[in-house]
Design goal:
With about 625 residues, this protein is an all-alpha fold. The protein contains 25 helices and 2 strands. Keywords: Isopeptide bond, Ubl conjugation, Ubl conjugation pathway.
């Protein structure tokens, strides 16, 4: 039969065992199980007549044992705190407190085993039935008891010596002599289903950290800010490089200290923000003024240091981005203004200046600001401003249209035969073109200019080759979509079909016509061409035109051809001298020149009457040399 105890009898035996556990004295298994049995027997078989009528739920021996255990915990903690309080040296106080906590925390796990029966029966039922909100599970009771004694009105103030010692460390007077915390010191989690809050803390741990946050972290952060606020005011008068070096040093010191001594997962980022607030947010004007000077000096490493310090401080980094955007616009406009007046309408000079400006300041974004997306966006916005609204666009009263035209002319020059005089890789040229293209606000206007010049290259057979033209069109399509290049691709397709059509026509008409004609069939509405005023077509051209019209209408019944003679060119051989000359002339010029096959001299009036009154302006009476009425 199990022994029966009164509370005094039971507790007289248990108290000695608890003190051995708190003091980490040896205890064998037999002694451990003896203490467990005493708690068990008291709770289930007490002879206390004073409590005989009280049920186990809510009262009885379970509550008496619980209350006795709680008193024992608090008495022990008070006695140990008093010993710490009597130590004069602050660092020794902290060391003793840390050792006491380590011993106490380990002891609670052993105590949990001795009071296992009480915990799993009486305490569990009280909590589940919500009979008493001041009753806790055994391990929680140990923590609550520590907290109650720690924050009693006349209790030990461990925060004060901790703050004082931290200040001495920051002043570099001492090195903290307490042991670094280990990873395994973290609060244990007792559930398998782990959930985390916004700080990445397990939800099961958050309540346990409330005292740490309210009683220690809060004054720690306040003291940290005030300390560095005073220090920053002393250092801000020094040059910016010295100041930034001090800021970097102080931030790293606090991060290192936090990781070593505090609950780093929630304290490190908060204490870092306090240092940044004191050194950076409170001195934004200092950073902004220095930032402009560093930009002018192209001091990449110093700019990177400033970026590293400011990029996590929202107000600071926002100011730097705004300052950088303003700087880029100013420097871009200065570079555009440096273009000589004689070169302001030269597309190569114009575009090369933009590219040089873009490359120079893009390197700052990539190198000094580590490709930061925010700086990249502000840089792009600044470039758009410079490209579309600069002193040259304003001068020509075309605003955005001038840059679109100049880029289209630049591409036209590169795409013409012999246009790439520097023999630069075309892929590299295309990349540069697309850099500028993306900065244009009016891309539709660029398309109009591009199509106009593209049509001219195709009609005059000036294009360097089809592959190069196709590569450029593909890049534009990838940038703006299929619809953007629909007309351009249609023109390209017309030329391809025309080459096949002309080849078949020549094969069929071989030996029948005297003129070697290359005829282009262009879709109405696709090409940016206008119908020129007509004139009398010379027989040598009329023969080829008539033959091709017959061939085409036979191949494509129902279609109508409209001849754009004003867009036509031809080669004419001059044989009047011992040396032959070949001229590339327009169709209207061919009509004039062929008249001199019929006569050595002919008056202007006769030419005008025979050909038509709508000759090319170059043959008008006003433009004719006054002393040369007859021409060969």
């Amino acid at each position: 039969m199990a022994p029966r105890y009164t509370l005094d009898q039971a507790w007289e035996q248990i108290r000695g065992g608890l003190l051995k556990i708190f003091n980490h004295e040896p205890m064998d298994v037999h002694e451990y199980m003896t203490h467990y049995s005493i708690v068990y027997n008291y709770c289930v078989a007490s002879v206390s007549s004073s409590n005989a009528q009280i049920t186990m739920v809510g009262g009885g021996e379970g509550r008496l044992m619980y209350q006795a255990f709680e008193r024992c915990l608090q008495d022990y903690i008070r006695q140990e705190f008093q010993k710490i309080y009597e130590v004069a040296e602050e660092e020794a106080q902290l060391n003793n407190y840390a050792r006491l906590w380590a011993k106490y925390e380990f002891s609670t796990k052993v105590l949990d085993g001795i009071f296992r029966y009480l915990d799993r029966h009486w305490i569990k039922r009280i909590i589940e039935d919500e009979l008493d909100s001041n009753v806790y599970r055994v391990q929680t009771l140990c923590m609550v008891s520590w907290s109650k004694v720690l924050f009693e009105a006349n209790g030990i103030n461990i925060v004060r010596p901790a703050m004082a010692l931290l200040k001495r460390v920051a002043d570099t007077f001492v090195a903290m002599g307490i042991q670094y915390k280990n990873e395994e010191d973290s609060v244990q989690n007792f559930t398998d289903d782990i959930e985390y809050d916004s700080d990445g803390i397990k939800t099961t741990e958050r309540e346990q950290l409330k005292i740490y946050e309210d009683e220690f972290q809060k004054p720690l952060l306040e003291d940290t800010y005030l300390y560095y606020k005073d220090e920053s005011n002393l250092f801000c008068s020094k040059d910016i490089l010295t100041y930034m070096a001090k800021v970097k040093e102080r931030i790293q010191e606090e991060v290192t200290r936090s990781n070593r001594y505090f609950y780093a997962q929630i304290t490190t980022k908060r204490i870092k923000k306090k240092v940044e607030h004191a050194f950076i947010e409170d001195h934004l004007d200092t950073f902004q003024n220095a930032f402009q000077n560093l930009l002018k000096e192209n001091a990449f490493s110093d700019l990177t240091l400033m970026y590293d310090l400011c990029h996590l401080v929202e107000t600071a980094i926002a100011d730097l981005k705004t300052g950088f955007r303003t700087f880029v616009i100013e420097r871009g406009n200065e570079m555009m203004a440096e273009i000589a007046e004689a070169d302001q309408n030269d597309p190569k000079v114009y575009i090369d200046t933009i590219l040089k400006f873009h490359e120079r300041y893009s390197s700052i974004v990539q190198n000094a600001f580590k490709g930061d997306n925010g700086f990249e966006k502000d840089f792009t916005d600044a470039c758009i401003d410079v490209v579309n609204t600069n002193c040259i666009t304003k001068k020509f009263n075309s605003r955005m249209g001038k840059s679109a035209e100049m880029l289209a002319r630049f591409v036209d020059g590169v795409m013409k035969k012999g246009g790439n005089k520097d023999n630069e890789d075309t892929e590299h040229i295309f990349e540069k073109v697309m850099h500028v293209f993306r900065l244009l606000k009016d891309k539709d206007l660029f398309q109009k200019y591009y199509n106009r010049f593209y049509a001219r290259r195709l009609l005059l057979d000036q294009s360097v080759n089809d592959d190069t033209e196709g590569a450029m069109i593909t890049r534009l399509k990838n940038a703006c979509g299929h619809e953007y290049t629909h007309t351009t691709q249609k023109m390209f397709a017309d030329i391809t079909k025309s080459k096949e059509l002309t080849a078949n026509f020549k094969q069929q008409e071989v030996g029948k016509i005297k003129t070697d004609a290359n005829i282009l069939v262009l879709g109405t509405g696709t090409w940016p061409l206008t119908q020129a005023k007509t004139f009398e077509v010379p027989p040598v051209l009329a023969e080829a035109m008539s033959a091709f019209t017959a061939y085409y209408t036979h191949q494509h019944q129902g279609r109508k051809l409209t001849w754009l003679l004003g867009q036509s060119r031809g080669e004419v051989t001059y044989k009047a001298t011992s040396k032959m000359y070949t001229f590339v002339v327009t169709a209207s010029q061919i009509a004039v020149l062929f008249k001199f096959n019929e006569a050595v001299a002919i008056s202007f009036t006769a030419l005008q009457d025979e050909l038509c009154p709508h000759l090319h302006p170059g043959f008008s009476r006003q433009g004719r040399p006054p002393e040369a009425p007859n021409r060969r």
